[in-house]
Design brief:
The protein is an alpha+beta fold and 245 residues long. Among the domains are: 31 residues, no CATH class; 107 residues, Alpha-Beta Complex (Nucleotide Excision Repair Protein XPA (XPA-MBD), B Chain A). Helix content is 45%, strand content 13%. It contains 7 helices and 8 strands; from the N terminus they run ααββααβαββααβββ. The strands form 3 sheets. The chain has a 3-stranded antiparallel beta sheet. A hairpin with a 4-residue loop joins strand 7 and strand 8.
């Protein structure tokens, strides 16, 4: 009986190796001898498009698939990374954020190249639209005649938003001020009523005395500014209100 090494050597000499030649040959080794070689898997870079880069001008470079398929831009991966780090030209911006940062109306987004993705908040909501920052900046410059015009429009919008917020806050403050005045008035009225009640308590109660035992003699006179009435008091406590002419 031939050994495994001898059988392997005979296969190298040109004679085909048969399973009947060696029953002791391991199954895995025998199967590997009769298997046809399979081609290796393609590298990841083989799936990327190759072409001319519009940024650096070189040929035969791997291009970014998203920019090529959705924005028709031939930009290599290296240039995209460099521009993103420099000024974010190839960043994708959502529509809501783009309207706020570049002061663009809704009409400018119609027909503009964008990438759609499922809404991250809920699958039933409208899809998320992502626009290229470079394209947004170009549209803003075209609308406002350059960067200076865009900055002026942004400043006008900030002032308008500030005035709106200030008027709303002023209305709330005015309402709060009126409520405070009303509360202060109520407190003053309560204080006045309390003071009047205290004055009434301080007054001596009149105790009737028989006419034969006492003769009223009104000596002390006082004037009450609140009621504008003169009052004279007897030693027994009796008070009489009168007017002076």
């Amino acid at each position: 009986m031939q050994s495994t090494l001898e059988l392997a050597a005979s296969s190298l000499n040109g004679r085909p190796l048969l399973l009947a030649d060696s029953p002791a040959l391991p199954l895995c080794l025998a199967a590997s001898c009769f298997m046809t070689p399979q081609p290796q898997a393609h590298a990841v870079t083989d799936a990327l498009p190759v072409g001319h880069c519009e940024e650096c001008g070189d040929d035969g470079l791997f291009l970014d698939r998203v920019l090529l398929e959705h924005f028709q831009l031939h930009v290599c991966i290296t240039c995209k990374q460099d521009q993103s780090r420099r000024d974010g030209a190839f960043e994708l911006v959502p529509k809501t954020r783009a309207k706020a940062e570049y002061a663009l109306p809704d009409s400018f987004f119609r027909g503009l190249a964008h990438l759609e993705k499922p809404n991250p908040h809920h699958e039933a909501f409208a899809p998320l639209q992502l626009f290229l920052r470079r394209t947004l900046l170009q549209e803003a410059h075209r609308l406002y005649d350059g960067e200076e015009g865009r900055q002026q429009e942004m400043a006008r919008r900030k002032k308008r938003a500030f005035r709106t917020a200030a008027s709303r806050t002023k209305h709330l403050l005015k309402r709060q001020h009126l409520l405070t005045l009303s509360a202060d008035t109520d407190e003053e009225q309560d204080a006045d009523s309390t003071e009047i009640s205290k004055k009434e308590k301080k007054r001596k109660e009149y105790v009737p005395v028989a006419d034969g035992d006492h003769r009223h003699e009104f000596t002390a006179e006082s004037f009450e500014e609140d009621t504008a009435i003169w009052t004279k008091t007897c030693s027994c406590g009796m008070q009489v209100q009168f007017e002076k002419w």
